[in-house]
Amino acid sequence: MANLSPDKRRKMESALNQLKKHTVVVADTGDFNAIDEYKPQDATTNPSLILAAAKMPAYQNLVDQAIKYGIAKGGTEEEQGAHTIDKLFVSFGLEILKRVPGRVSTEVDARLSFDKDEMVAKALKLIALYKEAGISKDRVLIKLSSTWEGIQAGKELEEKHGIHCNMTLLFSFAQAVACAEAKVTLISPFVGRILDWYKENTDRKSYEPHEDPGVLSVTKIFNYYKKFGYNTVVMGASFRNTGQVKALAGCDLLTISPGLLAELSQDHSAVTEMLSVEKAQGCNLEKVHMDEKTFRWEHNEDRMAVEKLSDGIRKFAADAIKLETMIKEKMLNVKNGK
After folding, report:
1. Cα dist. 42→36, 75, 104, 253 in Å?
2. Which of 4, 79, 105, 332 has its CA 20 to 30 A from that of 146?
3. What is the pLDDT of residues 16-35, one digit of tens each?
4. In the chain, pLDDT over 90 holds for what percent of residues?
5. Known EC number(s) (predicted)?
6. Residues 6+ apart with CB under 8 A from 116
7. Where does the pLDDT of residue 3 fall: very low under 50, low under 70, confident under 90, or very high at 90 and above?
8. What is the distance between the alpha carbons of residues 250 and 234, in angstroms, rounded to a whole number?
């Protein structure tokens, strides 16, 4: 290898390894095998990913242990179910933390997306469960929906409790500015779901990566943050193809599904840095302020963002309900000695 030219060495190097030179790569999965294979720095989970993983035979021991915990905690059936699901989310997080050197993102129930105080309470409970298991809060990111209430919950968790937050379901520039002003640790602006909306709601059905509306959205947010010196970092999320991923090389972090990680590991085309602090400094962007009234108006003006945020909350809530139903059935079987 030492005698190879840089071009030849690059041709032997996967796009995934090239990407890792510019960006922190995060695995978007609850599947431990995928994490073992692609060796990301961090991992992210959400209710949909946990639901999928909880159905896999390989992870039934985690489900069973969580159910035993929930039953032992006592209370009403609803309370036992809630204890079980909190424990299950943290149990997946604990297993992931054995496999990544960095952090895991654990999501607060999407049904709390419009209740700041309940989001804060749930986050504190999840962090307490991690602490019981010997994990510092510094290794956990609490995922919250990027509603106005979610952003204020993130602000409170960061300021008062030193709990790091990952603001998810982020589609509008207004959401991004409000998150930066709230001084949250990290945002997850969605790429693929923005592209989905444009394909469904306009006549145009295909985009090159450099003109992809999701890529353009994340690029603008990244440039704004870096130009004005915000500490909140940007983790692009929700990718539909590797072109979108490569078009955001240089972003602080990118969270990528196992399927796309596999494609990137087999791809040997060149990956060049597309986003950088230096480029951001030269961007023609003006600083704006986002109080609640301005946020609600500006976000509401973005039809795509309004529809995708609402849709995302509904979908995560639906999967949370499916997971609850599955857990309740299993709890009943345990109690009945089945």
Report:
1. 12, 35, 6, 9
2. 79
3. 999 999 999 999 999 999 99
4. 95
5. 2.2.1.2
6. 149, 150, 152, 153, 156
7. low
8. 10
Q: What digits encode the pLDDT tens for the residues 22-68?
A: 999 999 999 999 999 999 999 999 999 999 999 999 999 999 999 99
Residue bearing tokens 């021991």: 61
Catalytic residues: 143
Distance CA 11, CA 176 (A): 37
Residue of 184, 181, 200, 197 whose CA lies nearest to 145: 184
Amino acid at position 327, single letter: I
Q: Is the pLDDT of residue 338 over 80?
A: no
Output the CA torsion 245→246→247→248 (10° steps).
Answer: 60
Look at the alpha carbons of 104, 87, 94, 320 in this order and tell me if their dihedral is positive or negative.
negative
Residue 104, SS3 per DSSP: strand
pLDDT at 88 over 80: yes
Write the DSSP assignment of 4-35 as a string of letters: S-HHHHHHHS-HHHHHHTTSEEEEE-S-HHHH
Report pLDDT for 11: 62
Contacts 24+ apart (CB under 8 A), 280-286: 280/222, 280/223, 280/224, 280/225, 280/226, 280/227, 281/226, 281/227, 283/223, 283/224, 283/227, 285/220, 285/223, 285/224, 285/227, 285/228
Query: Three-class SS of residue 63?
Result: helix
pLDDT exceeds cutoff 50 at 1:
no
Distance CA 113, CA 122 (A): 11
Please, where are the H alpha helices in the chain?
6-12, 15-20, 32-38, 47-54, 60-73, 77-97, 116-132, 148-161, 173-181, 192-201, 213-227, 242-246, 258-266, 277-281, 292-301, 303-335
